Amino acid sequence: MSKTKIPVLFERRGANGICPSTVCWRARIALAMKGVEHQRRPMRFVDADDFAAEVGTRQVPVLVDGGKTIVGSDRIAMHLDQTRVGPAVGPVDDSGPGTKVLESDLGSRILPLVARDMLPHLAPEDRDYYRASREERLGISFEALEGKRTAGELDLAFAIGRLEGSLGELPFFAGEAPGWSDVVAFCFLFWIDHVSPRSVPELPYTLRAWYEGRRDAWRSICLEPAE
Ligand SMILES: N[C@@H](CCC(=O)N[C@@H](CS)C(=O)NCC(=O)O)C(=O)O
User: Fold this and answer.
1) N or C: which terminal CB in the chain sees fewer CB atoms within 10 Å?
2) How many angstroms separate the alpha carbon of residue 12 from the centre of ligand 1?
3) With a 6 A CB cut-off, is 60 part of the ligand 1 pocket?
4) How far is CA 90 from each of CA 20, 31, 212, 217, rounded to the nearest angstrom?
């Protein structure tokens, strides 16, 4: 009898076995929403060459499922909608702001605030690579970023204020039930909450209620040790 292989999620390995990656958390939550049993393979940045040889990409998250290799959190969520029953988790039927808007409104503001504080959350061997690659991406040293923290926090607070408008009358960004926009927005806010709590702006009332509800539901999924 052939034995069905359980899906494997390749994700970022962090310090003490705790995944510190906002995009990998998205994949974990999508798998949990669908109730998909899976194995986790945590990878360090320094494992990228071996990982690329095995899987064909240097980025996580990647899901290997039923002979298919799915790269990227959005694609993983769409794949789960196509292959599994249960609540919709992917971007297709989601009426919320969506990944691109959330990445530019939240992600681009949160990365400069968390970048330096990420170092202790990473495997020690990854810290030099992370610093060099993120300083290059942001075009500024981590030390110089500190001087911009207060302005960055204020800018994020305004972006969060605008985001609250997208919740409208509905309980979730995706509508009556949590969906992909909720997953992406939550994972960004939880990233700064977990890594740089001093820089989390005061959340407006409706958004705070949404965030606390999602955190109760999803925090332990994000922080569960990989092995
Ligand atoms: N759009 C992709 C982004 C994936 C991504 O940025 N992955 C990071 C997670 S730490 C990564 O592996 N980066 C590799 C690198 O910086 O070398 C997704 O949503 O999955």
Assistant:
1) N
2) 9
3) yes
4) 22, 11, 22, 18
- pLDDT tens column, 144-198: 999 999 999 999 999 999 999 888 889 999 999 999 999 999 999 999 999 999 9
In angstroms, the Cα distances linking 154 to 72, 77, 160 are 30, 32, 10
- Give the residue extent of every domain in the chain: 8-83, 98-217
Is the CB of 188 inside a 6 Å radius of any atom of ligand 1? no
Q: Specify the length of the chain in residues.
A: 227
Residue with CA at minimum distance from ligand 1 atom 13: 59
Q: What is the pTM of this model?
A: 0.97
28 lines ligand 1 (CB under 6 A): no
**Tell me, what amino acid is at 52?**
A
Residues of the chain with pLDDT under 50: 1-2
**Cα distances (Å, whole numbers) of residue 120 to 64, 71, 202, 203:** 29, 27, 25, 26
Domain 8-83 has CATH 2.70.70.10: no
Q: How far apart are CA 165 and CA 120, in angstroms?
A: 35
What distance in angstroms lies between residue 145's CA and the mean position of ligand 1's atoms?
A: 21
**For position 3, what pLDDT does the model report?**
55
C-beta of 58 in contact with ligand 1 (< 6 A): yes
Interior angle at CA 187, CA 183 and CA 190, nearest 5: 135
178 lines ligand 1 (CB under 6 A): no
